[in-house]
Structures are given as C-alpha cells and as structure tokens.
Design goal:
Length: 259
Amino acid sequence: MEQKTLGRTGLIVGPIGMAASFGVPAAAVERAFERGVNYLYWGSFRRGPFGQALRNLKPQRGRMVLVLQSYSRVAALMRPSVEIALRKLSFEYADVLLLGLWNHMPPRRIMDAGRRLRERGLIRHIAISTHHRPLVSELAADPDFGIVHVRYNAVHKGAEREVFPLLASSTDPVGLVAFTATSWKQLLDPKRIPPGERVPTATDCYRFVLSNPAINVCMTGPANEAQAAEGLRALELGPMNEEELAWMRRVGDHIHGGS
C-alpha cells in the first residue's frame, strides 16, 4: 500500500496510523515508522514509550505527521495541553490538533482556540473526530478542518452510505481517518463469529478498512510488538479481494445483527 495525500492538508501519510494509548513499545513504533507508518497519534493517553519513540525519531521529523488530541470543552485548557505535550517531546509544533469526539459543530470558543494555536505555529492543521455520521459532510465543508476521524469497520459500515458518497465529488477533499477497525475487538472474538466462518485477525480488519478508497489512514492501537506487526502485515498484503470483502461483510453483519 502506497502513501497518500491526506486530503486538503497536503500531508503525505502511510495508510496505517498508530496511537499511543495502549502502550506499544518504543522499538515497535520506530520499526513501524521505517515501514511508512508516519501518522503518529500521541493522544488520549500520552504513554512514555511512545513519547520516547517520537523523540528518537526527531531527526526524521520531516517525514512524521504528529497528531495531538484535545478532548477539552474548555477553550482555555487547549493551549497549555498542546504546549505541555510539545515540551515533553522537545518538538516545536504538531502537524495536527485533533478535537476529540464532537457529535455537533464545536462552539466558536473552541474553534477560536484552535485557530490561535495554528496562527502561533504550534499546530499546522485542525482535525476532528465524530461518531455522528450526518455531521461529517458539514465538517468537510468547513475549511478550518483538514481531517475528519470517522468510525468505519465491517460491523459499522454506515459511512459507505452516509459519508463516502457525499464527499466523493469534492474538489477540495477533507482527509479521512478511520478508527475502531476491529469494532472494539468484537471482530476478533470467536464467540461473536457466525458458525462456519473464519475468525478475522486485526490485520484482516485493517485491510477491510483500507480496501475502501475513501479512507486515507486506518488507525491502529497496538499494546505490544506482536499487535504492531499486524498493522505492518496489512501493509504487506494490501487491499482485500472481493471474496475476502464478502467474508468480512458476512461476519460484520452477523455481529451487527446480534448486537
């Protein structure tokens, strides 16, 4: 799988992203980076080993897309959060500030705080994550947002109807990043898989997501080196064929119906 341009941001990204939250070791982050995993998300839980990996990779800063996240609903807390993160990493700026989990348009105070950070050069682009699919087209039309994080996996395929077709004809496309590829591990649970079907691996889940050309980056949240390797395996195998996609859809539909 080749690197892509992340929508209107112009950032060049590998199709697999990696998050810090679950404790992946520094060495695994560095190996993944050398394989093209450069959308690096030091977000919800800023784990020490992930931060160490980022510091170790600083000589290659130009290849990295550093993502910091803020869940804050208090505008005054956004600047200190970003400044503390950058100070811990000894970085001058983040490529992306991700406004976490908004199911409606953020209020003006939040957007103004993000714009001030951008004007000061502490961040370069503003992203937003949402579970509310009807909001995505509105977010994509707002030039302040360069990237939208949206839920998409074999269980939750609604974005195929409610998001991707609406954005397909845009001449100024927003970057799309998918999260929860394993549907919070439901797709990996043998107890949830229909009789006679193979149990998907995390690699299968990532490949399913990345088989949709609308998605620029599929996030992963590895806890150890073996789980990090599953993301790299997805890069090696590439998109799924029609038979594999049909299998994943059968499994996902079964889980969705059961839940």
